[in-house]
Amino acid sequence: MPDKIKNNNHKDNNNNNLGNGFRGDNKDKSKDKDGPIAKLLIVDDEYDLVHVLKIGLQQNGFLVEGFTNPEEALQSFKSNAESYCLLVSDVRMPGLTGIQLARKVKEINPNVKVVLMTAFEIRDDEFSTVFPSTKVDGFVQKPVGIRELTDKVLSIIGQSKGEEK
Amino acid sequence: MTSNPYYSGKMEKIVRGDSQQIAETAAKKKKSLIEPGSHTLLVYNDLNAFREIYTQYSRALLPQNEIVVIGTQYEPINNVKNALRLAGVGDIERYLNEGRLFILDAQQGYHYADTHGMWKFALSLLSRAKKEGRQGVTWFGDAGSFFSFEKIEELMQYELSLPQKYEDTISTVCSYHSKDFEKLTEAQQQTLFDHHLKSIVVE
Lengths: 165, 203
Known about the structure:
The complex is a heterodimer of chains A (165) and B (203). By secondary structure, chain A is α/β, with parallel strands linked by helices. Chain A has a single domain (4-10, 23-164), classed as 3-Layer(aba) Sandwich (Rossmann fold), CATH 3.40.50.2300. Chain A contains 5 helices and 6 strands. In chain A, β4 (86-90), α3 and β5 (113-118) form a beta-alpha-beta unit. In chain A, α2 (70-79) packs parallel to α3 (98-108). The longest helix of chain A is centred in the C-terminal third of the chain and has 19 residues, at 146-164. The relative contact order of chain A is 0.16. Residues 7-25 of chain A have low confidence and may be disordered. Chain B is of the alpha/beta class. Chain B is built from 10 helices and 7 strands. Chain B has helices spanning 19-24, 47-61, 77-86, 92-97, 106-111, 117-131, 144-148, 152-161, 178-181, 186-195; strands spanning 14-17, 39-44, 66-72, 101-105, 136-142, 170-177, 198-202. Chain B has a 7-stranded parallel β-sheet, sandwiched between helices. The radius of gyration of chain B is 16 Å and the shape is globular. The chains are: A alpha/beta (165), B alpha/beta (203). Chain A binds chain B through residues 45, 92-97, 99-100, 119-121, 123, 130, 142, and chain B through 47, 73-74, 76, 79, 105, 107-108, 112, 144, 147-150, 177-180, 182-183.
């Protein structure tokens, strides 16, 4: 199974209606004339999930790099840290957990936002007591739909833009 | 798994093989790699391998009137249930309802109360097993959460607090993903191999 989920080469299209969350067709909107909304890094040790989320988020206008191996995701991030806007990562992964990945990513680029996904119970104090200095911008409970994740990502990016102003 | 053999000491204590070979020993009572009353170390190289081993052992042990506990770290509880179902482990809901099968979040067990919370629970099950005339308790516990929380010293203390061999009919299988296990120093790996009665390395 490849550790990196390769980009699909969808044809360009001109539909840039991004305001309504999931748009329901299967075209890659990340190559719209106005360019992608943002570049995302998706990491989960489940290949199928990364594949589905990557395609769904691309259809919703994001540029997405997907990995099943968090170490490789980190290497990719290091090579182009300024290009990423947000990390979406599973929490529980062997070798390098989502929170450990988030900490490393934020050390490299503190502006990157982080959304963690988990299929387990989400406890607010779970990591905040252990890793108080690592700020997580959002959590989502798995199984997560494309619409829900898109809304989450858009709201966090929106807040981020607000903060910049 | 890297070519690093992890350990160059008492090699006879370490069994190596692919997950299928290891899982097949579940059905061979006299050749079972998880001996009754043993504290066993399992290093698995991917989740499919771990799944194959715990499902085949559950499939063999549950009909023998054994209580089986699976402490999961990387697979949600429902996925574990599905894996057991797909592996042909009889009536999962009945086993769960009768308290003969437990599927727990290992992270909660090890960290949300105290590190020995899981162990205390295992002992309470052992006591119940005796009262109910069960064969014993077999426990698969993934140690991954110690790595998530970066509590390696606690992990080592916990492991060393358990004996190599139990005087009772409880068997514990301390399970490590190889990516976690490789985060331990060579000395720590060696200590763990030495401390367990047997070590199984899935290659």
